[in-house]
Specification:
The structure is a homotetramer. The first copy, chain A, is an all-alpha fold. Chain A contains 3 helices and no strands. The longest helix of chain A has 36 residues.
């Protein structure tokens, strides 16, 4: 995983702490919801980035490898995270 | 793509026609929204199913093939549909 | 509900029929997934539009009315469709 | 906003810190993606909870109030966060 993913996640953590502060300071509900949605959107971007690097490393290795079970496992995981991304 | 995907999409089409009928008959707004959400959930399931069969056919072929550009193209598409699934 | 919602849903129905045709003609999996995602995005837009008109009619009536139970029911429904929209 | 929302957000913050640790320790990409998705799902739940309490306080006050502009503003915001929830 890229150092970039780590950096982005730390930025998201800072954003989330800002949201917590908003709630502590009794900010307007809708503003809080909007910031939570922005945090979620940022997290989705990190997921996409991690998936991209995963496809270009582990997935290529597994699919080109001779272990059929491993290949199936790796491809099944892609389907699963795609399915979950449709549910959140 | 499986005949199953086709069958499911036709079922979704029937469901959507039902929603249109509800609107024509002036059904309660919230009931219409719920049915539209059910149609969307059903569509997501078909997407996941199509992606799964795509991974187990075209993607394996491309990743095991010798054309590096083609491999990159195919993997990039997976990232793109994943990214989009986070936005809908 | 506006005649506009009905018109949009019929457009979506046409779009979905196009997707079914793509599958029948054995189109490329990723192209089908992208079109299904476009149909979902279009459906979300119709939902939002219906919710907007619902808020400006039924919800105002219920919240201004004297029936407390009815008011609670109407507000609970808004929460429920919001919750569901986060899951699809 | 309830103290419960604050508590939940702090729990999510702890969860997110756990994800950051996973990345630092070079955890398996798919496991990281799954945890990010779990964080997103938890955030959506907090949003729903905040919206619910907002509907039962500010929205009732605004809709029952005599300021038509304020009422429209408050209802428009509901539509907006619903629309956004469909995009993340």
């Amino acid at each position: 995983m890229s150092a970039d993913a780590l950096k982005r996640l730390k930025t998201v953590e800072g954003h989330l702490r800002g949201v917590i502060r908003m709630v502590e300071e009794d900010a307007y509900c809708i503003d809080v919801i909007r910031q939570i949605q922005a945090v979620e959107a940022a997290l989705s971007k990190v997921s996409t980035q991690i998936l991209e690097s995963h496809l270009n490393s582990c997935v290529i290795t597994a699919v080109q490898g001779s272990d059929k079970k491993e290949r199936q496992r790796v491809l099944k995981e892609i389907t699963e995270v795609f399915e979950m991304s449709n549910k959140i």
